[in-house]
Amino acid sequence: MSIEPDFLDELARLERSLRHRTDSRRQGEQRSANVGEGLTFSDYRRYTPGDDVRLIDWRVYARTDEHFIKQYEAERDLTVHVLLDSSASMGFGTERANKFEFGARVGLAFAYFAVVGHDSFRFSTIGTDAERLDRGRSTRGELLRLLGALNGTNPADRTAFFDALAAYARTIRSRSLVVVVSDFLDSPDAIEDGIAALGDSEVLLVHLVAPEERDPDVTGDAVFEDPETGSTQRAYFAGSTAESYRERLTEHVDDVAARARRLRAEHVVVDTGADFFDAFADIWAAREARRATVAGDIRRV
User: Which secondary structure element, helix H or strand E, spans residue 76, and what is its range?
Assistant: First the structure.
């Protein structure tokens, strides 16, 4: 695997693009100056000379012909925990469609956005347990070191979601976003138990599926090998067998999504054959949309 250092420069351009897009959509109601940095609306008060005119709510002015500004309270610092599946199945896929490389890019992007937003990040790989890779320094220099560590990581062994996530959950001490990046090739029960073990943290599941998984380039008699157990199975892959395989894959993805919803976790499916920056923009948009929905529900209460 080889992610070049200039990937971080590309992330800087992506962050600016997403921030501009968010600014345009919210028309001055951006929650902060940076993507990922949070401010929570508190109340209105009358405008007085010297106040920041950008905080004036022009919709209120249109209704009342008076100037009111919005007051905000800073949210508590957020810690972004990235948990990247490093099991053998994540080594599947070619070039940039490789699941582990794509997942590493997703994890680095979330860590980068945390740094830009003045939040903290923690980065670990997960298999049968969790192995922390960062040194507790949420800086660009640490991102460069982390990039090198990921380039030297080879997916191996298997994933035990409950064991890994339950063990990691015991290390969480503050308001957190936990981003789990994986192909989720474990039993849905184990995945659900692992999510539940994360408790009250905000949880985002980034579910990676390689193009070759959706539509294997195989026809006729073939031997399939489980990369995590080494077991093999011979099958004639065509017609009804191929269709049954695709249906089972879809059912598994849908099952993981349903269990995530039940536990109030966000679940996003990502095709690793897609352009990375387009895919990450979609992931970020999905999270922002959910946060807006949750905020709206809270205001209605």
Answer: none
Q: Mean pLDDT throughout 146-175?
A: 94
Q: Do 177 and 204 form a contact (C-beta atoms < 8 A)?
A: yes
Q: Are 150 and 87 in contact (CB under 8 A)?
A: no
- pLDDT, residue 289, reads 77
**62 in the same domain as 164:** no
Claim to verify: residue 160 and residue 221 sit in the same structural domain: yes
Residues 269 and 295 reside in one and the same domain: yes
The pLDDT-based confidence of 228 (bands split at 50, 70, 90) is low
Higher model confidence: residue 118 or residue 257? 257
Same domain? 201 vs 112? yes
What stretches of 202-263 adopt beta strand conformation (E)?
202-209, 220-225, 232-237
Return the percentage of the chain with pLDDT > 90, whole number: 56
116 shares a domain with 168: yes
- Single-letter amino acid, residue 135: R
Between CA 244 and CA 82 the distance in angstroms is: 34
Find, among 94, 132, 139, the residue nearest to 115 by Cα: 139
pLDDT in tens, 188-214: 999 999 999 999 899 999 999 999 888
* Cross-strand bridge partners of residue 225: 232
Does 221 lie in the same domain as 210?
Answer: yes
Query: In sequence order, what DSSP letters do the residues of 189-258 get, joined into one string?
Result: HHHHHHHHHTTTSEEEEEEEE-HHHHS-S--EEEEEE-TTT--EEEEEESHHHHHHHHHHHHHHHHHHHH
What is the dihedral angle through the alpha carbons of 127, 129, 132, 133, rounded to the nearest 10 degrees? -30
Terminal-residue alpha carbon distance, the chain: 48
Domain encompassing residue 52: 39-74
